[in-house]
Amino acid sequence: MAAISYELIKTCQQSGARLGKIHTPHGSIDTPIFMPVGTLATVKTLSPNELKDMNAQIILSNTYHLWLRPGEDIISEAGGLHTFMNWDRPILTDSGGYQVFSLSKLRDIKEEGVHFRNHISGEKLFLSPEKAMQIQNALGPDIMMAFDECPPYPAGRDYMKASVERTSRWAERCLEAHQRPNEQALFGIVQGGEYEDLRKQSANDLISLDFPGYAVGGLSVGEPKDVMNRVLEFTTPLLPKDKPRYLMGVGSADSLIDGAIRGIDMFDCVLPTRIARNGTCMTTNGRLVVRNAKYARDFKPIDEHCDCYACRNYSRAYIRHLVKCNETFGFRLTSYHNLHFLLTLMQRVRKAILEDRLLDFREEFFEQYGFNKENAKNF
Ligand SMILES: [Zn+2]
């Protein structure tokens, strides 16, 4: 029996977006969903209770980082990642591939895997499909990701074709090495950059291996927004309708809505928590940099339309003061608000799908956000 299943509840008549549920060993999640990122087995500055308060249903953690520190053996000995970090809802882990390709400058990609140097100590390391599966089997998340090659953007067609073919061979090795298919679902990752025929080749290769879910990888790596949307438009229709679809590394409000419209069910990104630690907040009226001097005597909440703990209890002036003084509580409040904002946004997206009005919702949301081409970066 498969570890997870996808239930399609409704397709939005106006946009084609999907409302669904993914049933996992640690409970069900409502899709489309945003997954907060807990890189080192913690969503930075927030406790599991706080994440539950804001209705986070699933979080993501990083194989590469947990492999290096504290090591998957310690987490396994603790009873797995859920027990180790005291989070009893679903967890997804990535494969480590993205970090190997993004953090390590010294790497050597071979058919058997990737040789590279630890980004902290400089020590020589080797990660392969088999090793990525062994680590994720030890960590014990509900959903784990296949080890793939993450090509740079832009990449030439020849490079991309070779990379797609290697990723397919690695995906097959991941399936063979996966020891706990009844308890943990392994997702394949469709690559191919902006090349439609290569996306098709990658999707076909992976679908023939019958994964319980599929991710679209290699996006949100610096390409223009319209390229991402175009790639999604020709990639998601290739994927099975009865399996979840996950767009990796996307966390800006506009991209979440546009991804859902193109049939994506799951998203993750460090963006909301990372910018929170710079004192930047996502609000219904666009981005608000609470560090700015103009908020020194502003006693309104970060977002007057938000009912999160930070907005119900604290002012821009107070949060600005804390952030300027590097007080942890300031970063906690901005992180809380930003995650609450995206999780609430996805709730509103799900409601709009249910009511067959996601395109109308998009228009209203973008209007209030002040979104246009000139300030697209203000998300
Ligand atoms: Zn708030």
TrEMBL record:
Gene Ontology molecular functions: metal ion binding; tRNA-guanosine(34) queuine transglycosylase activity
Binding site residues for Zn(2+): C306, C308, C311, H337
Catalysed reactions, as listed in the record: 7-aminomethyl-7-carbaguanine + guanosine(34) in tRNA = 7-aminomethyl-7-carbaguanosine(34) in tRNA + guanine
Enzyme class: transferase
Catalytic residues as annotated in Swiss-Prot or TrEMBL: D94 (proton acceptor), D268 (nucleophile)
Family matches, as SUPFAM superfamilies: tRNA-guanine transglycosylase
One biological process term in Gene Ontology: tRNA queuosine(34) biosynthetic process
Source species, domain of life: Bacteria
GO cellular component: cytosol
Pathway field: tRNA modification; tRNA-queuosine biosynthesis
Residues noted as binding substrate in the record, renumbered to the chain: D94, S95, G96, G97, Y98, D148, Q191, G218
Keywords assigned: Glycosyltransferase, Metal-binding, Queuosine biosynthesis, Transferase, tRNA processing, Zinc
Cofactor(s) in the UniProt record: Zn(2+)
Source species of the chain: Alteribacillus persepolensis
Annotated TM spans: none
Coiled coil: none
Subunit description: Homodimer. Within each dimer, one monomer is responsible for RNA recognition and catalysis, while the other monomer binds to the replacement base PreQ1.
Name this polypeptide is given: Queuine tRNA-ribosyltransferase
Keyword field contains tRNA processing: yes
Domain tRNA-guanine(15) transglycosylase-like: 15-369
